[in-house]
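A further point concerns the way the authors explain their paired sequence and structure data. For illustration, here is how one protein appears when written out as sequence plus structure tokens:
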Amino acid sequence: MGKLLLHLVTAIALVLLGRSQGWPRWLTTAAVVAGFMGVHLAGGRVGEVIGAKRSNKRYQTMLARVLLTSFLALGMAFPLFSQVEVRQAKPEDLAAPGTAPDQEVPNPMLLDLSLGVQVDGKVQRKPMNETAFGQTRTFWETKRYVCDKARVARVQVTKRQGRRGAVELEIAPTLSTEWYRQDIDLTVALVSDGKEIERKTWDDLTIGSDQSAANKMGCLVCGASTSKTPKAVFKLKEEEFATMFGEGRAPIVRVIVNVQKGGEEEEEEEEE
């Protein structure tokens, strides 16, 4: 058992050497066999091998045993360093490089988006109480969350100046689905310190896919729908808006998608 372990260690060392030097497999195999012969002879059995030559049968038996042990250890070493690894693909493997895989969310789906400091990669954005009027913050991270094939592709929040110093927040979520058409209920709300300040809802909003064959052909009578971008405008007093922000505090935009019924698939045209 000890000698087999020594052979295995030798095989691993030679396989690693062959991999680092780019040897073909046959050369690595020859090197491993030669190494095993060297280990065998260095183990104090030189005299036994020389004596074995006096008996041709005994010598052949010993040589066959060494070669068998060599190939056994080699067969154990190569899988450890195989260049091919096979396993079932994970969701993150299917995502494009640099992107996160989609995450399925049970119905109804709720998304909370902070209007405070937002770190986008290495860029830190100001909280929206410090941004100028007319600026828009876009939340792209919402697109990776999916509810029965429906998703919020993005949410845009624009800060505008209203009358008499009021602050207007225009919130525009873009919704799409992989279904041909799908009915949802949509809720957009502004929440501060766990309390809902404003809310707007859309009942039975029909959304679809901009990539469907019908929409690509401009077929408006085929029953297909497209992505939708409804807008909610919340008006706040300047003082009220300012008090929503503080140390570790900021209001959030809440988007709730409630799928009303299963989506409809696009019907394929029959070929004649």
